[in-house]
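Can't paste images in this forum, so I'm doing it all in text. The chain is below; anyone willing to post the predicted structure tokens underneath?
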Amino acid sequence: MGDARGSAARPAERPFPRIEYYWGVTNRGWGARGRRPGAPRRDSASTGPVTGERGGGDHTALADELRRLDGGRYGQYRGLTGRWRFPGHVLEVARVQADPYAPPSRLAVVVPAEVAELPEDLWRTPVRARALAGYLVRQVGRLLPEHGFRLDVGGQEVLDRSSCRVEDGRVVLRLGMDLPGRGRVIDGRAAERMLCRELPAAVAEGLRWAALDQGEARAFVDSVEDTDALRRALPELGLVAFVADGAVLPRRSGVDDRPLPGGGVPFASPESLRVEVELPHRGRVTGMGVPEGVSLVVGGGFHGKSTLLRALEKGVYDHVPGDGRELVVSLPDTVKIRAEDGRRVTRVDVSPFVAHLPTGADTTDFSTDNASGSTSQAASIVEAVEAGARVLLVDEDTAATNLMIRDARMQALVAKDREPLTPFVDLVRPLHRQHGVSTVLVVGGSGDYLDVADRVVMMDAYRPVEVTERAREVAATPTGRHVESAGFGSPRRRVPDPDSVEAESGGRVRVRARGRDALTLGETDVDLRAVEQVVDPSQVTGIGLAILRCVRAGHLDGTATLAEVLDRLDADLGADGVSVLAERTLDDFVVPRRHEVAAALNRLRTLRVRKLV
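Text version of the structure:
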């Protein structure tokens, strides 16, 4: 990005307005507050540096300082910490890396409402504010140079990110930056170009309404609001999920979540399951409604069964326009379940699935450091119900066969009193009847599920066809199999021990994402590879911060059950979880769902449970 672009983007003729805003930088993280009318200021003047900081001034002073530092020792960059005023925004340098190989420095940019001039109707509700922030951060990310800046723009999902917030019309952008150096020597000229020209140009073009593609911005926000409205409409319609006609479900690959080039076969609902919904902006839309109860997705291999289920598991999130899944939604409390060999299980009541073990172990209070596929899946189902899941998604491909089904021949060979496991096929209906938990299953080889299904959808060359009546005809022919359980009792609830959840290492809080697959919490690594609804590394950081919040805020107090801890967390995060979780970090994060927080706690190998109630 050249000098001409940087200078052209700066509205030098416009005076910088006074900001009624405070960015407090402490060793605990960002603290963002709008000043209440009549409340005292947190610093002496909005144009000066925050008390205790070494840097600060206007943009010309910053440029002079960077030129002066050129060729100096890398550690001298620390003098930049503070607030620097630019025409149209404030740059705050919150943390400076110790050397060129350390984690990036952390910056914040605040654009006042008077400068951003974002129409109020685009940010007046939390959903629209989140969507607008999602649009803006992507615009800035597109404008910034490829190297040097670390801006968390996210992927196909529009999540509640710390990297960009719209608060009462003002925009707050948080990002990382690799301060340039020649070895351990400061490259002040490059730093001046980045901080004083490239970043201001991207901010001016990406965070001001006058510079944006206003039609595109409105379409982005309206699309997310439509998705949210559709998801909220599901309970009234008696549905657990909805897939719009014309949706594009196939992805480019298992590691690339963008839509398949060309789109593949657009989704078209079977007429018998087609539902019409009126949305705020798109108006009337049609698609396949998935009703409450037990739904099977069947079909031959490679015909789109798992593709449909993966779209439903991601339907708890909103998606960017053009993703193809904007109108594929699931209830917020939808949880994907799978087998997970080797996971730790801590005092879970798995008695609905497991009884009379040869060892005599009490399965109402079951623990293991190395669960099998069947016991891990049984524990995951019970844990999901404990955390408040209303819908379970299960794919036969990633499930434990011996937990899913025991056919007539195996029942004849191995008597029930010699088989500790009760298969899911005998529990899936009681789970809905007694606990209100619906299930969507992908099955290709377990025909006994036809006996318990409320409806059956066959995927045929990526096109869904309802075959419920035909399935009932097939199921009318007896197989000789008998039901092994008549009910799904209420599992005992667990009370976690707060002393077993530690986020400190060497006296310092340590919360770190290792991609999407693992969370480092204190001195412990939590394996999240089987938690398939984790879609973003920043989401992993948010999970760790949420667990830390549960401990530090007293939600996890040794008397509350896990469900009560999660309820307290939800109430605490409220409509602005970013501000709550930001108190402990300068790093990027996403506000997580309660179900991923519960999944991480359940996989924490230091977790202890005080009692079961």
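Residues 214-237 form the longest helix (24 residues). The first strand starts at residue 21 and ends at 26.
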